[in-house]
Amino acid sequence: MSAHILTAVAWPYANGPRHIGHVAGFGVPSDVFSRYQRMAGNKVLMVSGTDEHGTPIQVQADHEGVSARELADRYNGVIARDLQTLGLSYDLFTRTTTANHYAVTQAIFKGLLDNGYIFPRTQLGAISPSTGRTLPDRYIEGTCPLCGYGSARGDQCDNCGNQLDPADLIEPRSRINGETPRFVETEQFFLDLPAFATTLDDWLSRQTHWRTNVLKFSRNLLDDLKPRAITRDLDWGVPVPLPGWADRPDKRIYVWFDAVIGYLSASIEWAARTGDPDAWRPFWQSPDARGYYFMGKDNIVFHSEIWPAMLFGYSGLPHGAPGGHGNASAAAGDVGSSAFSGSGDSSGASGYGALNRPYEVVSSEFLTMEGRKFSSSRNVVIYVGDMLSRYDPDALRYYLAVAGPESQDTDFTWSEFVRRNNDELVAGWGNLVNRTISMTAKNLGAIPGAGELTDADQALLAASRAAFGTVGELLERSRQKAAITEVMAVVAAANKYLSDTEPWKLRAQDPARMASVLHVALQVVDDAKTLLTPFLPSSSARVHALLGGAGEWAAMPRLVEVDTPTAAGSPGYRVLTGDYDTGARWESTPLPVGRPLAAPTPVFAKLDPSVAEQELARLAAGGE
Questions:
Q1: Is the C or the N end of the chain the one with fewer CB within 10 Å?
Q2: Alpha helices, DSSP H only, in 335-430?
Q3: For the segment 343-356, what is each residue's pLDDT rounded down to a tens digit?
């Protein structure tokens, strides 16, 4: 029986083009996972979009001399095109400035307020002395008062992981211009996170299938939960949906609160586009539904604590209730110390009802580059668009899958990119495809039948078939590096099989045996193509065609124009979407004997070793 799988992908900031470190954490892993789940027969909803609110947008807009809306419009288009070229199979990639997102965000805000988990309070807010503009917490740095780390942010210390307020920092400074901020009293709304401490601890204790580093990091933060401001003194963002606040030009819901709600709002927008406004509900409310959230490790706290707390509070779900890994079917009870309506449903605010919490938070570590942290300002960067303008998208996808930062920080080097492309994709997988189809097309012209199979034949076929179980189990657990390594082991075994059996020598000596060998090799090529499809969709589709397969094998996303104005005033926008059910299934399918085969073209291009030096020189020259 198929399950409903929500793939919730971190929202990239629309303040510039994204670099390959970003897609290493949220992009490629989520797409590999989603493509596998669809092939395994599950119903998948993969959603995200550009994150367009907050100070980073305003700061970059000021730098470029444009409005925040104009900046968001531009980079929404740039990022969507890059992700399309990379082949990320979003059911919907949208943006946070849509009227739909504003409405859903405001509904969640009101539901939490009605249930007693949002309250107003006066706090000290940071102001830039030179501009008079509010400096939200992430744009203030200083020394952490708890661990002494010198570059702690105003909302959190990346060294010890504890939640902070800007006024807590020792020697605070603006990240924009280095000046010391001025602190003034301001009234804001707060999310009562301490009310969920026991609930979150109980819930996290049941997530034994999570990656150890994610679970440990999340539970370590529970002892220091504080109420967290969810509004700011800004003029760019979602209006606060309350009398006396909604029309104020200086108060907005802050970006970290509205961005995580984007997973829900994008799901609702997707449903509306299908013509069935309730199509999102099975992914958020069915007992069989599982939500997987993909992001880099700097976003763990928002997805393992803050977003679950918001969902608990909005849904009215209690501490200690049954619910396994977080389904919305838990019984009612009491949550912490805050007032609880007892309904288990916030339908008075919005009608969404109880909502599932994340089934798993799939966090990657950081990708560095040539031994240094990615930094656009220091030219330590490879933008996705630039990379894909020169190299095959599947070459990048392969590198990030086999050598990416899945469980530890990983360094990208151009020399290693070239080596893996040439030695593994070209000389390994590409060579297997080319030599097998070439020999068959030249000598037989069609897929041959098999005669009596030897032990070697049967062993290779058995290993190829068994890989579907092994690789599928690894992909279920988001162990993608191990999964693609298993597939490449099948490829290596097939290449060795051809070298050992030497079918090119059998045409005159034993043509029947040659046909059997090529039949076995072609079957393993077809199996490997299927096994590699989640990782390498474009090249797998090419192999499908080379094997004489008809129809679309691995569908790619479409960039669609939407003529509906956004809430921020844009006349329209673009979304990524697609229909990805091509009929490809996660199983070994016997090749039809007699299907004609033609001489193949190379699947991958070999890179000259000088590419590494050229790319390093380009970086040194500023990316020209």
A1: N
A2: 384-390, 393-403, 414-420
A3: 333 333 347 999 99
